[in-house]
Write a structure and sequence with these properties.
This protein has 245 residues and is an alpha/beta fold. The protein folds into 2 domains: 179 residues, 3-Layer(aba) Sandwich (Rossmann fold), CATH 3.40.50; 59 residues. Helices cover 27% and strands 34% of the residues. It has 7 helices and 11 strands. Helix 5 links the parallel strand 4 and strand 5. Helix 2 crosses helix 3. It is globular.
Length: 245
């Protein structure tokens, strides 16, 4: 997998803004609702630039972040007092149990091979304390497949630190049999291609996420397609699953 934004975290944050800590506040609300209090410690699997860790750390929670991108972790370390590890989530092996776990940002979909996906859920189970609350987020591939988003090429635009305009020309190919989406993105500065991304994602659906969590000993508490966990028709861009171990 290649991803231009993962080695340029400042551009990543420009393309995927989160004002004002909207996702961090969702995490806080989820823990308060289902744990009944804030967790003493939180493990963020696929923490990226550490935005959720920054917010949760400000509440006094001891946070640990994991991400395979050293560039993302470097930015996370600059913004939050927390413990960080550079490694794929399926390789994590800490001798710590956490009261709260976050697996957001479509992290599980990066585990394309069935073996790696199984390892990923085993890592969640292994690091969850008894009674821990786990919040899993993923793209809502069911809704995306029913829309035109994955069948129609699109562009995203961002301005870099030098003031240059970059355009990411994006297209998708879907392999239904293997439950994979293949995204190709050419990054252009003017007429020049400065980078080409190719990433493969496993398309995960709500019931599969719930089933795998149950297989590893969790109880499902809630499933939604919005950060407010409001009733809906499940056409939102992302799905969220709350589980208790």
């Amino acid at each position: 997998m290649t991803n231009f934004l993962y080695v340029n975290p400042d551009l990543y944050e420009a393309v995927y803004p989160d004002p004002p800590h909207r996702r961090g506040r969702m995490c806080e609300a989820t823990f308060r609702r289902y744990l009944g209090r804030l967790p003493r410690n939180v493990l963020d699997l696929g923490c990226g630039t550490g935005r959720e860790i920054q917010y949760l750390s400000s509440l006094g929670i001891a946070c640990t972040g994991v991400d395979p991108s050293s560039a993302m972790i470097n930015l996370a370390r600059a913004r939050a007092q927390a413990s960080f590890h550079i490694c794929p989530m399926q390789d994590l092996n800490l001798d710590i149990r956490f009261e709260g776990l976050l697996v957001l940002g479509n992290v599980l979909s990066h585990l394309v091979h069935p073996r790696d996906l199984e390892y990923g859920f085993e890592v969640i189970r292994k690091h969850a304390a008894h009674g821990a609350i786990v919040l899993v987020g993923a793209l809502n591939y069911g809704a995306l497949l029913m829309s035109s988003r994955m069948s129609t090429p699109s562009n995203i635009e961002v301005v870099d630190a030098a003031g240059d305009r970059l355009v990411g020309e994006t297209s998708f190919c879907v392999d239904i049999k293997s439950q994979q989406s293949i995204r190709r993105r050419n990054w252009r500065r003017g007429d020049d291609i400065v980078a080409t991304d190719r990433s493969v994602h496993r398309m995960l659906f709500p019931e599969e996420l719930c089933h795998r969590l149950r297989q590893h000993g969790a109880d499902i508490l809630d499933v939604a397609d919005n950060q407010e966990f409001a009733p809906s028709d499940f056409n939102g861009e992302e799905i969220y699953v709350v589980a208790r171990f």
